[in-house]
Each structure stands twice: as structure tokens, then as C-alpha cells.
Amino acid sequence: MKQLQDKIRQEGKVIGTNILKVDSFLNHQVDPELMANIGKEFAKYFKDKRITKVFTIESSGIAPAMMTALNLNVPLVILKKQSSKILNGDVYQTKVESFTKGTTYELTLSKNYIEKEDNILIIDDFLAHGEAASGAIRLVTEAGATVSGIGIVIEKSFQIGREKLESQDMDVYSLARIAKLGAEGVIFIED
Ligand code: G4P
Q1: pTM
Q2: Pocket-forming residues, ligand 1, beta carbon under 6 Å
Q3: Cα→Cα distances 191→81, 94, 177, Å
């Protein structure tokens, strides 16, 4: 998506060879017009998949996921990151380890917001190691529903996330695919 690539080139800050900071339009301050166009783009790509709900993971996935849900005219469900297990049985939970941040959390979904008939579209801001998205897939699968697609705003294609998701037969659509980060800046797959 050209508007997103231009924004990344203009405002993204490369930290070492692994991290791209995009605090000015995605992770801290948010650019609503860009999010609106991201939502339209995801909705266009996934329009024939009979999506019934959009799922995302708090917190930075919420803005692009909200705009996607609006365009698909379906509800948005925000998966929560709990620090410990909830024992009352009203939720599905799975442990997720973040390699980038070195943290572990219980990804949590209320049983009230998923049904066996649901076709879920998972939207997230970054795809790195694919652990968060894999956790979301486990929750949907445990509920007996279907993951019908995964939409990613920024994919770090030099990390293993896409491979991990495709090995689970997932249709992964990323709006910006980064081949390399380094002293030369951001290199996209198409460059
Ligand atoms: P994974 O989900 O693909 O396995 O990624 P990983 O665990 O390695 O990343 C965990 C967190 O780090 C996620 O945020 C992810 O968005 C973020 N992250 C990974 N790589 C980058 C990067 O290059 N730049 C930025 N800005 N973030 C990155 P999170 O913990 O879910 O936080 P948030 O959604 O509350 O912001």
C-alpha cells in the first residue's frame, strides 16, 4: 500500500536491524486518515470471505482493526492480554510469549463474543515472530470457529511470522512487507 510505505519512509525510525518505530502514526499517535484507508484496503481484500467478526489484540491493533470492521460492517472484538489465568471458565485463554518485548501474557477471549459459525478476520499492527497471531488462532480454534484470514499492517518479512502462519494454512495479507532494516533505512520486498 503506497500511502503506508511513503509514511514509513518519511516517519519510521529504524532501531538496529530488527525494530521499526512508528510511534508517530500507529503505536502512540495515530493517523486517522491512514487508518481509514487501511481499513478500506483490508475490507476490499477480504470482502468475499464472509467475515462475521474482526479480532485484534490490544492495544496497537485496535485502530486498523476498528476501521476494517467498520468497512466490513461487522463487530470488532479486542483480545485482552491478562497477566494471569482467569479461573471462572467464562473465557478462552492461551499463553503467548513476545520475543521482541521479552514478555509473556495470557491472551484472553470471552466466550460471549464467539460462536462456532463465526468466520474471523484477525488484524494486527506488526507481524514479527507470529506468536500473537498464532495465539489468536488457537483461541478461535478452541471455540470451534474458523480463522478466514489475517491482515497485517507492517510485516517484518525477515522474521519467521509469515512462515509460521502460512504453515497453518492461513491467508496472510500484509500492507507493507519489509525485507530489511539497517543503516540504509527501510527496504521493502518490492525494492
Ligand atoms: P509476534 O506477535 O509477531 O510474535 O511479535 P512479537 O511477540 O515479537 O512482538 C511483540 C510486540 O512487539 C507486539 O506489540 C508487536 O507489535 C511489537 N513489535 C514487534 N516488532 C516491532 C517493530 O519492529 N516495531 C514496533 N513498533 N513494534 C514491534 P505488543 O506487545 O502487542 O504491543 P502493543 O500492541 O500494545 O503496541
Answers
A1: 0.97
A2: 19-22, 27, 57, 59-61, 98-101, 125-132, 156, 161
A3: 36, 38, 10
Reported as half-sphere exposure (CB side, CA atoms, 13 A), residue 8 has a value of 24
Give per-residue pLDDT as tens, 145-190.
999 999 999 999 999 999 999 999 999 999 999 999 999 999 999 9
Ligand 1 atom closest to residue 125's alpha carbon, by position in its atom list: 16
The average pLDDT across 16-44 equals: 98
Sign of CA dihedral 166, 168, 174, 176: negative
Angle (CA) 41 136 77, round 5°: 65
Q: How far is the centre of ligand 1, averaged over its atoms, from the C-alpha of 135 (Å)? A: 14
